[in-house]
Specification:
four-stranded parallel β-sheet, 18% strand, Cobalt-precorrin-4 Transmethylase, domain 1, flat, Rossmann fold, 3 domains, alpha/beta, five-stranded parallel β-sheet
Amino acid sequence: MSEHDADIRILLAAPRGFCAGVVRAIEIVERALEKYGAPVYVRHEIVHNRFVVDGLRAKGAIFVEELDDIPDSDRDRPVIFSAHGVPRSVPETARARNMHYIDATCPLVSKVHLEAERHHEAGRHVLLIGHAGHPEVIGTMGQLPTGAITLIETEVDARSISPPDPSRVAYVTQTTLSVDETRGIVEILRERFPDLVEPVKDDICYATTNRQEAVKAMAGRCDMLLVVGAPNSSNSRRLVEVAKKHGCPNSMLVQMAEEIDWNAIRPGMRVGLTAGASAPEVLVNGVIEAFRARYDVDVDVLLVKEENISFKLPRELRETNEA
């Protein structure tokens, strides 16, 4: 049997790929371009995926890291804040400069911002479980005054943190964390701070949770597991970690089919395939087609949970296509 005739079984995770917050953020940029024309500025990558960003750039979006990067000649052009959320100082600066801004922050991230603000108003010190340097963490910490919120990245941090008043503490989390690792941190905080105030509903978003559950269900059945996603995508990197922890040590992150190490593929392998919440389905299809160009492939879908969540666009963009 030639290599091309050898069977490869792909186990395709469902759900996978775009979440409702990502769909909304991308549509906000596209609708803004339709309504206001190019250029439209976007502060930071709208979502963490180079393919998506390049596609929007080709349509007329200009990506900048800070508002100061927008030329004075274009200060009247719309600027969109990314799905990850921004510190409170960013919209304040935009308003002070009379800039037209559109907030594409995921509503589930905005929920965390609101929780942190309410805890602060109630006199509680806020503990944020998350990863330093991630835009979502920077945005959440930037909702409160300096010193009002403390970042916890590890169980070691959870054991050593010393809040001003141990009887008045609350925690919130980044939305794209490992469910299992976060649970371990929370258990330590509960043990140390009996009066700890917790979120009414988990801050880790439905999409992150569902994609991790799908990976857990398939990892032990795979010889290799590929996660389509960007290196700077927190939820995509967590999927690789979850896969390795739950039975598939041969798991890796690829941005697209061109990054697959074909020397590591053997005829007869069972390959798990999923995608992070900011990775478009076209990249998943590209991986499948790349396998089909080399092997006879069977694709089996592993459905863990149906998703039917959607978020409304900002009011000023809802009527763009209604005429």
